[in-house]
Known about the structure:
Elements (H helix, E strand, L loop, with lengths): L1 E2 L6 E7 L2 E12 L5 E8 L2 H12 L15 H11 L7 H14 L15 H13 L5 H21 L29 H10 L5 H12 L3 H5 L6 E2 L2 E4 L2 E8 L5 E9 L8 E4 L2 H20 L23 H12 L8 H13 L4 H8 L4 H11 L2 H7 L1 H6 L3
Antiparallel strand pairs: 1-2, 2-3, 3-4, 5-6, 6-9, 7-8
Amino acid sequence: xxxxxxxxxxxxxxxxxxxxxxxxxxxxxxxxxxxxxxxxxxxxxxxxxxxxxxxxxxxxxxxxxxxxxxxxxxxxxxxxxxxxxxxxxxxxxxxxxxxxxxxxxxxxxxxxxxxxxxxxxxxxxxxxxxxxxxxxxxxxxxxxxxxxxxxxxxxxxxxxxxxxxxxxxxxxxxxxxxxxxxxxxxxxxxxxxxxxxxxxxxxxxxxxxxxxxxxxxxxxxxxxxxxxxxxxxxxxxxxxxxxxxxxxxxxxxxxxxxxxxxxxxxxxxxxxxxxxxxxxxxxxxxxxxxxxxxxxxxxxxxxxxxxxxxxxxxxxxxxxxxxxxxxxxxxxxxxxxxxxxxxxxxxxxxxxxxxxxxxxxxxxxxxxxxxxxxxxxxxxxxxxxxxxxxxxxxxx
Length: 396
């Protein structure tokens, strides 16, 4: 055996019919699963074997991955989600990606397309099919396309493809209606009726009550500890949400109540409280101290503001179910918990609070999100704005 002078691999020979029969072996790199790819060439001419080894080495790109795009979309996408992307995104996002893959890609023949064969036209046809034939919402189609787009960007990094066709694919538009429910809020009278109905001895209702004064997201509410109630304000610096731990096969273990940092820097904020909310929390704190004492548990500044009768965190779906139950009892259209958050913003707008301040209180990273809520929930302001012309040009 001898090492090839060019450093490509190794060369060996055996004698056949009185001639040297050469065998060259080369390690090309790894496939996307991390397995080593090796290749061998045999023949009587040493120079031809060396030349074949040189050509083979060109299939290895800068990433060290050996692949000519023959990977099947569905299989490769699943591998990418759980073995590559899962290391840099939240576990809940991994679950969302997996759902998109299982429900909106794998059931269709397009999932068997080779990565190298994905084109603008066939991908556009697939997206059109999801919306027009399968009846998927525009949002589902958009999210599915976004997932494929991220995946194909990674394939470019690997050198498997040269360009990303998904950047030129669009989601077909569906007929939409203005104010179709994106921001479903409670009117002032509806809000008053709900707050009057809440049982403030019940831990879930206590959470709903404070939300009307803070506009916090569900997981921000769940993550509140008594150290966050300070100087007539609520300090928001963490959230409690579910977390998934994955193994190499994609199987997961669920952690229901895991403390995490907030998503964006703007989500870290301090929310001043009205006196009625301050009084409520002071009373709730005394109750919490007593509850911990009865259960022989230590009460500390890290104890959760909202907890069940055993001082356990409140299960994340309970506030939403409770609010919808109250709505039905009051003959209102059931609305999700997030409607309280939008209602909080609306009450501020109704009292003339400027958009920048509302943005900071809501923890929006982009003022356009706040502005979008304003333009949807305050249509009467348009009439009020143009009425200025009546004053200017009113007949004297």
